[in-house]
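Appendix B: a complete holo record

For completeness, this appendix reproduces one full record from the ligand-bound portion of the collection. The bound molecule is magnesium ion. The inputs are the chain sequence and the ligand SMILES; the output is the full three-dimensional arrangement of the complex, encoded as structure tokens. No fields have been trimmed.
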Amino acid sequence: MLKHLIALLQSEYDDPGISEDGLVLLREGKYANSIVYRFETGGRQLVLKEFYSRSWLIRNTVGRVLTARETRALHSLSQVPGIPGDIRRIGPCALTMEFISGETIKFLCNSDQKLPKSFFIEFENRVKAMHRAGYVHLDLRNMGNIIRAADGTPYLIDFQTGFFVTWLPRGIRQFIEGVDLSGVYKNWIRLCEEELDHERQQFLDNFKGFRKFWIFDGYWPERKWRRLRNRFKNYFGSK
Ligand SMILES: Nc1ncnc2c1ncn2[C@@H]1O[C@H](COP(=O)(O)OP(=O)(O)O)[C@@H](O)[C@H]1O
Ligand SMILES: [Mg+2]
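The structure of the chain with magnesium ion bound, as generated:
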């Protein structure tokens, strides 16, 4: 199936030079996750997120659904700063986007690096801009989903688990947006050179109190997803 995907990429970018050898693996992922690569075309670095290499079942269920969700989210957020652009859907279960050069904050954390307060203020601003555009991400505690770009600013990636909340009543919407903000502040505590200020700490404490009553906990999609995936594995055997 990867050969088929390469043919689709060559035709989409009108570049016969795109080949399997030119794909640099960024993340293999597990059984039911997408595989993420970096590749180059027309002098630009792009990211390919694909399910073509997964089983027929995964490709035609979660593969299609998650690719469609992520493509739609990224298209709708194209005006928000700090979100990859250049989005193209490549067939039913792959998409490409701008490659953000830099490191994930997970990498920075693992190598004991700290970030300035200005990074987190901008992180918060960008998350609020995304909320104004009507979207909640829901997986911002995961440090693999935030990149410190080469210009020092935060970029948000991985839009498979979030959703648009414009249809929800204002109070509920604000509450779900709190999941994202609490993710920003958690990462602030882990990685910032300066302590979280009193006001934001208070927000985080209040939020923790409420969260146990709420099903859209930041870990909810991941937990559900893991359970569903294990069930698939048990029924259909692993790859
Ligand atoms: N647009 C991008 N620019 C740079 N690196 C990226 C980009 N998208 C993904 N990555 C890299 O690939 C990894 C996995 O991507 P992600 O979208 O988070 O997929 P997953 O659903 O497997 O978590 C990220 O942690 C990051 O290192
Ligand atoms: Mg991710």
